[in-house]
């Protein structure tokens, strides 16, 4: 049981590291472009190019910061043990999908099954939290019944 949790946790770590790497690479490219931009006779063009590169750097720094926050949240998720109710780190199996309550990382595929990695703060995560097998809830006109919690 905790094997599934550990594997889903590892997939989330890979997701976050991929986002971090992409942001770091984009920052490096934007800074390189900014440094390579040489002043020409059209001074405004130079300043515009540098400003656009700076905006790109700032946008990617924001994405890197968000990815770092996800990693911090993920590091606080326990994937050992079981619980009788849905909590952070739980795998929740429902009649309308399987969920891993940790961070918002989209769809994760493990052993041919799809799991939706959701944050406890997301609308579905909020509805899942503290539910027990047999409980039901409705979200977006769809009824979910908790079948089991790992």
Automatic annotation (TrEMBL):
Superkingdom: Bacteria
Residue ranges of the region described as Disordered: 30-57
Residue ranges, compositional bias (Basic and acidic residues): 34-50
Name listed for the protein in its UniProt record: 3-oxoacyl-ACP synthase
